[in-house]
Amino acid sequence: MPASDNPFSEKPESDSTDPDFSANDLSADSNNVQPTESEASDIDPILNEALRVAEQEHQPISEQDYQPSAKSVRPPGPGLFESICWMFGVIGAHFAGIMIFTVGAVVYLLVTSNLQQNAKAIQKQLTQFFDDHLLEMAGVEQGIFVLIVMLAVGLRLGKGVFGKLNTQPFAVSTGFLLLISVIPLSLLSGELYRLAFEAWSAFVEQVPALKAFDEMQAMEMVKQMTENSSLGALILVIAIFPAIGEELVFRGVIGRGLIARWGLVPGMIITSIMFGLVHAHPAHVMAVIPLGMFMHYVYYVTRSFWAPVLVHFMNNAFAVTVTKEQTSLPEEAAKLADETQVAHPLITLSAALFVTVVCVYLWKSRSKYVTPDGSEWSPGYISNESPPLNKEIPLVRERAAFGYYPALFLLIINFVAMMYFFGFE
User: Fold this and answer.
1) What is the 3-state secondary structure (H, E, C) of 131-154?
2) How many CB atoms lie within 10 A of CB 45?
3) Which of 27, 236, 308, 421 could disulfide-link to 299, CB 3.0 to 4.6 Å?
């Protein structure tokens, strides 16, 4: 290092050639007081630290020093309070859809000159209109909900919304595995619903005022709609619309912020609880919380927004198909549509075991972005978003041990066998 660049390397003008000259001598000459040994020992560390700092200032800065550390990156929102607002926003969006349908119904009755004159008659007439057009009302409600959600999510995430959601496709083998997981998942969800509903019914007997919640059961509305509606229309309203709208809110926005701020497991749990709460009925809430956690888990391990959408769609489509076609299905399959049916413990155990191994396999074969140096890319927080377009960072899917494939095959065969031999009680 050049002497002129380091002030501590310059020699004093006076007595610089004297080998016996030291900092203590200079201090003694100026103050005519000889410093003690403790004072000298206090000065030396200060001088050494100043010299070290000066040397670091003249060292070249590497390219890595320009990269912000993970701690310096502020995780995205929403936080907990905003997430709660989003949850109530979902309820408000559904209410907006119902109000729009109601206005349309009133206008229709006015145009056709069928609207009565007094308030009670109008209310009765509208109630009858809703009962006769239940699928249309649900279609308008869900359609308005999806439109509001798409607009809100686009505004909240801003530029690069598709990269933040990560809308890339996922592996075909993963899609097949999720497909065969639907029936075990539905059975476990149904068992949880049955247990929760029994506990809820016992509680309502003590507090009759809570019976109002029983009018919010979605399955009862589905059963009414399936009587006079086509299967295609039912799947559109009950499976496609909710899968897109609810996944955009809970996995795409709420989950993104809570996982980045709270961590993977706490973020998944809080998001799934909120996902359950919007389903209103307490028994239904308890049944869909684990399903929400599974969908968020699938989202994380696949790095694809379409994976939880597929699980959500298949779960709802399976439920509505079994409900619609239960008269033409085999007896044991038709019982899947009845939430009061009790599954044999061995069926429940085999379903839980299969889903558990599926989760382990998905983790072992999870996808992640790998940088050229072999490290996993991250925006500085836990996230599913894809890297910036100007960075060539490929998505790599890990390989699970070969033994998982025969294990999964045997477990799904075991589940089907348990269904065949034991059925429902």
Assistant:
1) HHCHHHHHHHHHHHHHHHHHHHHH
2) 9
3) 308
> 35: number of CA atoms within 13 Å, CB side?
18
Query: Cβ–Cβ contacts within 10 Å for residue 417, how many?
Result: 13
* C-beta atoms surrounding 195 within 10 Å: 14
Burial 329-357 (b: 16+ CB within 10 A, else e): eeeeebbbbebebebeeebbebbeebbeb
Residue carrying structure tokens 């020699």: 11
CA distance linking residue 418 with residue 187, whole number of Å: 12
pLDDT at 416: 92
Confidence of residue 206 (pLDDT cuts 50, 70, 90): confident
Q: How far apart are CA 231 and CA 164, in angstroms?
A: 34
Task: Answer whether residue 262 shows pLDDT above 90.
Answer: yes
Phi first, then psi, for residue 207 (nearest 5°) are -130, 80
- Mean pLDDT, residues 65-88 taken together: 76
**397 phi/psi in degrees, rounded to 5:** -105, 125
Report the run of H or E that residue 160 belongs to, with start and end: none
Enumerate residues 6+ apart whose C-beta is below 8 A from 94: 141, 145
- What residues are paired with 34 via a beta bridge? none
Q: What does the DSSP 8-state code read for residue 35?
A: P
- Alpha helices for 134-263 (secondary structure H): 134-157, 161-165, 172-180, 182-206, 218-226, 231-235, 241-247, 255-262
Distances (CA, A) of 193 to 133, 146, 190, 207, 260: 28, 26, 5, 20, 31
Highest mean pLDDT among 124-128, 212-216, 321-325, 396-400: 396-400
